[in-house]
Amino acid sequence: MSKTAKQDRTAADVMQRDVIVVRPQDSLQEAMALMTENHVTGLPVVNAKEHCVGLISASDILNYEQEHSEFTAEANANLARHYDPDTGRWESVRVTSYALEEFADVSVEHVMATNVVSVQPETPLRDVARTMIKEKIHRVVVLDEDRRLYGIVTATDFVRQYAESD
Fold this sequence. Notes:
Elements: H1 3-7, H2 11-14, H3 28-38, E1 42-46, E2 52-57, H4 58-68, E3 78-84, E4 89-95, H5 97-102, E5 118-119, H6 125-135, E6 139-143, E7 149-154, H7 155-164
């Protein structure tokens, strides 16, 4: 691929089209299960009209658990470490029985981020990368003009793009 062809690439050229999503009314437990099964750290949240209304990440769920657990000091609570790709740091959170018992009763819409950073399919890839750096995020959703989910571009997609280049 020529240098010019690489520079002309757009979000649509590298995005993942088969995106795992959750609904606002789905439980945090369901969202966590989907993330685990699909080896992802975040999911777009779409409504019945397939409009992207938010994003939920593993960090959002862990932070929610830590903030809302009455039992963070309980003796059987363990510290869990997780890498937060949004901040680029390893973080420790106290994991308690709260998550296991209560996450089935908490809906995604109560925890999701609603400030969705998005691009359009024709957005140049360089602009997608700049947006991700500026916003300090490692995923950006690709939405059509009606805010329907078209795909997602992640930091891994940029690594794949680089690895596959000549």
